[in-house]
Design brief:
The complex is a heterodimer of chains A (about 120) and B (about 110). With about 120 residues, chain A is mainly β. Helix content of chain A is about 0%, strand content about 55%. Chain A contains no helices and 11 strands. In chain A, strands 2, 4, 5, 6, 9, 10 and 11 form a 7-stranded mixed sheet that branches. Chain A has a 4-stranded antiparallel sheet with strand order 1-3-8-7, with no helix packed on it. With about 110 residues, chain B is mainly beta. Helices cover about 0% and strands about 50% of the residues of chain B. Chain B has a 5-stranded mixed sheet, with no helix packed on it. A 4-stranded antiparallel sheet of chain B has the order 2-7-6-5, with no helix packed on it. In chain B, strands 9-10 form a two-stranded antiparallel sheet. In chain B, strand 3 and strand 4 form a beta hairpin. The radius of gyration of chain B is 14 Å and the shape is globular. The termini of chain B are far apart. Classes of the chains: A mainly beta (about 120), B mainly beta (about 110). At the A-B interface, strand 5 and strand 10 of A face strand 4 and strand 10 of B.
Chain lengths: ~120, ~110
């Protein structure tokens, strides 16, 4: 099993440019999460998909951020236009269907380190 | 949403047992306690989860007292490779089967030779 795959691993862009981050979850996992990690704010949940449907997007910072999951094996997180404060490591994670109340282990990808100049 | 409190940092030496205690005074009846580990430049990795008493796996043990207001992650005989940030999490179980995790600052464990 290849685990969660994210691309690109590193992205450097200039302010105002569009950035698209990609994620391939583990096959068979029906839950997908996008997180952002910075030194100042730690690890924050941006959005959660279940069966390709966005369930909780309360963590999405603002309208410049959008996420899609067109099928069970692919998701994107887009920032348009990007700003220097968006610089962070963005993680994608996936998990199996939930058991009652117990947490289902989330498998994290290697992350995409985004730098906006 | 139950909030967790854990030490910001800890130091240990190779071969010692490390115990990281987390407090979660407002834990709800249905909440499980989960621990994740994060190495530099990697995503977090699940370590262990428990509801009450003691849970043990090949990596760690988790001790939960009867009142469940705290928990202790125990790492036996740590090595340099155990240097990482350890997160204690209590999920927020939302309707529809969604267990939302809120990551705090975690405990930065440094293992020295």
């Amino acid at each position: 099993d290849a685990g969660v795959i994210q691309s690109p691993r590193h992205e450097v862009t200039e302010m105002g440019q569009e950035v698209t981050l990609r994620c391939k979850p583990i096959s068979g996992h029906n839950s997908l999460f996008w997180y952002r990690q910075t030194m100042m704010r730690g690890l924050e949940l941006l959005i959660y998909f279940n069966n390709n449907v966005p369930i909780d997007d309360s963590g999405m910072p603002e309208d410049r951020f959008s996420a899609k999951m067109p099928n069970a094996s692919f998701s994107t997180l887009k920032i348009q236009p990007s700003e220097p404060r968006d610089s962070a490591v963005y993680f994608c994670a996936s998990s199996l269907p939930g058991l009652a109340y117990a947490h289902n282990e989330q498998f994290f990808g290697p992350g995409t380190r985004l730098t906006v100049l | 949403l139950a909030k967790t409190t854990q030490p910001i940092s800890m130091d240990s030496y190779e071969g010692q047992e490390v115990n990281i205690t987390c407090s979660h005074n407002n834990i709800a009846t249905n909440d499980y306690i989960t621990w994740y580990q994060q190495f530099p430049s990697q995503g977090p990795r699940f370590i262990i989860q428990g509801y009450k008493t003691k849970v043990t796996n090949e990596v760690a043990s988790l001790f939960i007292p009867a009142d469940r207001k705290s928990s202790t992650l125990s790492l036996p005989r740590v090595s340099l490779s155990d240097t990482a940030v350890y997160y204690c999490l209590v999920g927020d179980w939302l309707s529809g089967g969604y267990n939302k995790l809120i990551f705090g600052a975690g405990t930065r464990l440094a293992v020295h030779p």
